[in-house]
Specification:
alpha+beta; 3 helices; about 100 residues; disordered C terminus; 4-stranded mixed beta sheet; 4 strands
Length: about 100
């Protein structure tokens, strides 16, 4: 019975992790679907501020910034792959409002 209990526990943890990953991906897709990526062509001033901040912080990795019209709160910082991306990838600001 001990082996069966461990298998059920493992499958439950695996299911919860997969469900959390799936819902995070769906939430990010919904958020980014209503946003515009900050580029020099679209938002020259914001892009220049971000470039200046990256230079001041001596941060050389790319940073993706998106502007959305309606976001819960003033700003939301998230990563596209959840905790794995937050620990091992580049940060992503997925919603900024003025």
């Amino acid at each position: 019975m001990g082996g069966t209990s461990l298998l059920i526990l493992f499958l439950t943890i695996l299911f919860v992790a997969a469900a959390q990953w799936f819902f995070l991906r769906m939430w990010n897709a919904r958020l980014l679907g209503r946003a515009v990526k900050v580029t020099p062509e679209c938002f020259l001033e914001i892009h220049a501020e971000i470039a200046e901040l990256r230079q001041k912080l001596d941060y050389h990795r790319p940073v993706d910034v998106y502007v959305a019209d309606e976001v819960d709160g003033k700003m939301r910082v998230t990563s596209l792959l959840g905790w794995l991306k937050a620990r091992h990838g580049r940060p992503t600001l997925s919603g900024l409002t003025a």
